[in-house]
């Protein structure tokens, strides 16, 4: 199973809008896909959330206008996960309802390899952190009770890992122990996530977990100190599943949608007071 893993496109319904008054997110996505144009043998393209910045139907139509032809050209299935900036109701009304017949975007996407992508919607309306309802865990448990011949990939926007920075820890996923209990002993080969905008690896219930960098910007989780800082870059990963451990290879490029005259200037640089204000508005 070979997967192109991307995340956090933050597309706008208004084509003139710029992310942080700087990044043309449509150009960023198109530029990144151009970088992967020569990659063949894909079974799936998995977008792990924050597809939209404003949650508008127009932004979701734009997403699929860009990704559907790319996936079709590659002969790959397309899976789109809901993130905290997304509006699941709008996506359901514009593109498709989830498998449970609700506007919660939980779904199973079978692959020709005999594997499958299981998508979980961890978004909380109006908030930045992630949460899974008991009904979602019950649904997931039922799905995993019947293993897939080629194994399962779980895709969820909020990584089931503790965040690396003060801000990301306030916006991470609730209920890690409850999710781990469902995943324990299942056929899930890897968990794919976004949200953090930087690469990160870990595990839940002994299952490898990969967080892919963002497309609209890439966060610096290590050297920024007490600040929250991101750069005008875009990244994506190739995930290969076969015998043994998953193989994940990540590339990061200059952001093709950057409109700044100085690409080295951070897209944003939040000090502790700004971080506290964001946490108060979007955290628990």
UniProtKB/TrEMBL annotation:
Pfam families, alphabetized: Metallophos
Domain of life of the organism encoding this protein: Bacteria
Keywords: Hydrolase, Iron, Metal-binding
Residue span(s) of domain Calcineurin-like phosphoesterase: 1-198
GO terms for MF: hydrolase activity; metal ion binding
Similarity comment: Belongs to the cyclic nucleotide phosphodiesterase class-III family.
The protein, known as: Phosphohydrolase
Organism annotation: Brachybacterium alimentarium
């Amino acid at each position: 199973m070979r997967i192109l893993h991307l995340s956090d496109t933050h597309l706008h319904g208004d084509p003139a809008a710029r992310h942080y008054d700087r990044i043309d997110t449509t150009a960023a996505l198109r530029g990144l896909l151009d970088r992967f144009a020569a990659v063949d043998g894909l079974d799936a393209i998995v977008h792990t959330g924050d597809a939209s910045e404003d949650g508008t139907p127009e932004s979701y139509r734009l997403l699929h206008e860009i990704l559907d032809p790319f996936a079709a050209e590659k002969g790959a299935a397309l899976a789109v996960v809901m993130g905290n900036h997304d509006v699941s109701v709008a996506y359901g009304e514009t593109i498709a309802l989830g498998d449970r017949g609700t506007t919660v975007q939980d779904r199973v996407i079978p692959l020709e390899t005999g594997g499958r992508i299981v998508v979980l919607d961890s978004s909380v309306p109006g908030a930045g952190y992630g949460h899974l309802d008991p009904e979602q865990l019950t649904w997931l448990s039922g799905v995993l009770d019947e293993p897939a011949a080629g194994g399962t990939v779980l895709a969820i926007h909020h990584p089931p890992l503790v965040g690396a920075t003060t801000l990301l820890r306030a916006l991470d996923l609730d209920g890690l122990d409850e999710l781990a209990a469902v995943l324990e002993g299942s056929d899930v080969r890897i968990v794919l996530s976004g949200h953090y905008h930087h690469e990160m690896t870990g595990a839940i219930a002994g299952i490898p977990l990969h967080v892919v960098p963002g497309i609209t910007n890439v966060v610096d989780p290590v050297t920024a100190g007490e600040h929250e800082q991101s750069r005008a870059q875009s990244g994506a990963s190739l995930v290969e599943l076969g015998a043994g451990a998953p193989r994940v290879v990540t590339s990061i490029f200059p952001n093709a949608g950057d409109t700044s005259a100085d690409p080295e200037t951070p897209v944003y640089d939040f000090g502790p007071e700004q971080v506290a204000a964001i946490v108060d508005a979007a955290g628990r």
